[in-house]
Design goal:
two-stranded antiparallel sheet; 17% strand; binds S-adenosyl-L-homocysteine; alpha/beta; 379 residues; 12 strands; DNA polymerase, domain 1; 2 domains
Length: 379
Amino acid sequence: MASTDGGSYSGRCAHSLLRTQYSMMPAVVTSPRLTDLDRAALSAWCLDQGAETYRADQIRRWVFGKRVSDIDEMHDVPNSLREKLHEQFVLFDAEVVKHQIASDRTEKLLLELADGEHLECVLMRETSRRTVCISTQVGCAMGCVFCASGLNGVKRNLATGEILEQVLRLDRLLGPDERITNVVVMGIGEPLANLKALLPALDTLNEKGALGLGARRITVSTVGLPDGIRALAAHGKPYNLAVSLHAPNDELRNRIVPVNARIGLDAILAAADEYFAETGRRVTYEYVLLRGINDEVEHARQLGALLRDRNAHVNLIPMNPVEPLHLDAPSAVQMTKFVDRLEQAGINVTLRKRKGADIDAACGQLRLQEQTGSLDPSP
Ligand code: SAH
């Protein structure tokens, strides 16, 4: 259990009480998360404790493969080593403060971190796919006009263990015959602004002795930070790259994605081309369709011209309404026209279905409600 000056807690009442205490505390002292250690670091720790290094693999199998929620459930780990794990680490240090299940079986968790901050993660079910969508920062600095995550800026980066904990918590919602098949880093935050914590987390998800998910089943979505895209390519794993484009020209993109003003489409596309050249992975371009803003057939024509000679896939996402923003998805007819025009240009395009619509599953919506106090206080 996380040890804090405020003591341990459970349940919503205690949690609201503690949140008040947290706000008066300069810092929260917690034990390190077990998941902050990669395999090499955990092996080294085992050696330090006088245990053999294969114990690290045993421990990781319990955490990533066998879905334990308590160190005491790691039956083949000797008692003495378990005690040391208890003394020095926590397995999970976030608290699930809200768990929602949509009619399409999409599930969403609102987690409260040890310092009282909140983040969200989502589990989506589609045929045999079990996709989890995870966050990388508390808030976001990018300021995209349609997105709930950035409305109050960015507070801090998540640690590796906090990123992994989201996957592990969602994994524990699955039935015994279900397995996570895909991870998308499309939750709150800009992943490429937190590569230091993200890359070890992704590598752990990819590793055979941990979650063992193929690199091709892991997708990182970015607002388009060219240096970050290059760093991801240089990392040498063929993770999928998704670039959130949202506009086919700089004038419009500067309005929708403010950070574009100091980057520009040319630089983003050049970095994405390099990503494809180095990894062989086709890049996906995301485009949130905003009624009356970026949804005209002319925009589709421009987008087609931009991507025609690239090995690209376009993911069109109808705007998911966010309470304080007055933005909507286009009509079905308009969206079909947009798709048709892109297809005419020979572009590979998907119009995404909304998942979890009845639980506000778009990025950052729950966290925003928690911040503004409009979240239903019932458990
Ligand atoms: N910062 C990264 C990852 C987080 S946003 C990025 O920009 O890609 C990931 C995706 O969430 C965006 O591409 C956008 O498609 C989607 N998104 C955010 N808010 C949305 C909303 N209100 N409606 C529909 N999609 C949204």
